[in-house]
Amino acid sequence: MNNKHHRNCFTFNLVILTSLLISAKLLASGQIYLSSSNLPIVKINTCGQEILYNEYIVADMKIIWNGDDERNYPDNPPNDYDGRIEIKTRGHSSYWLFPKKQYRIETQDSLGNNLNVSLLGLPAENDWILYGPYSDKSLIRNVLAYTLAAEINDYAPGTRFCELMLNGAYLGVYVLTEKIKRDDNRVDITKLLPEENSEPEITGGYIFKRDRVDDGNVSPV
Asked: How far, in Å, CA of 157 to CA of 123, rounded?
């Protein structure tokens, strides 16, 4: 087993241990409180705004990550990211059925322009997903699938387990995930120009998204 597999197995074990510790605190105190974690801590502050369904709002995000095998504390200074984001909820069934919401975020500069940054060691980009594995009690289903896919294919979304705090409240274990999109560091395909509408220009790669049926159309990513 190579070092990459060792790291993945180690991370999975850490997530399970973290969940057990949190459960014990819940049983003991009846409330959720995050004192520290061996996972990175993502803190988002919306300044009192409600995060809307499928509509971005401006917020502040800080990420505390002291490195592998190190403890992270909510009151540590942010050392992986500290800046502006736009955030919205995402998903459809999960939004209406699950209390643990899913989020899409865009990292931005102070003027609101998209800002490509590396988060938790993943290649720099500005589009990210905070996936909350509510229906997956093992917490590892998506991460395991993406890890195996990356061993087989040219690309699969990179992932990092983290703890999420929203406006001071602890929301649990989330998975920071690369959003699938056309990009040199993600799906490396060429954007077609309007005049490129016949072969050989149109021969190449395409991205389509179809995760539910609304009006019968296939929506591009």
From this structure: 11
Nearest to 37 by CA among 168, 181, 137, 163: 163
Amino acid at 99: P
Q: How many whole angstroms separate alpha carbon 212 and alpha carbon 92?
A: 9
pTM, entire model: 0.78
Residues 191 and 220 sit within 8 Å (Cβ to Cβ): no
The closest alpha carbon to 142, from 123, 125, 129, 153, belongs to 129
Rounded Cα–Cα distance for residues 80 and 88 (Å)? 21
CB hemisphere CA count around 49 (13 angstroms): 17
| Average pLDDT of span 110-116 | 96
| Cα angle value 152/119/150 (rounded, 5°) | 0
CB 14 within 8 A of CB 49: no
The answer to whether 192 and 201 have CB atoms below 8 angstroms apart is yes
**pLDDT (mean) for 125-136:** 94
Find out whether 180 and 221 touch, Cβ atoms under 8 Å.
yes
Per-residue tokens: 65 = 């990550």
CA dihedral 147, 151, 154, 156 (to 10 degrees): -10
Taking residue 54's Cβ as centre, other Cβ atoms within 10 Å add up to 11
Which of 130, 203, 197 shows the shortest CA–CA distance to 164? Answer: 130
- Return the residue matching tokens 């980009």: 125
Q: pLDDT over 90 for what percent of the chain?
A: 54
Domain residue extents for the chain: 3-180
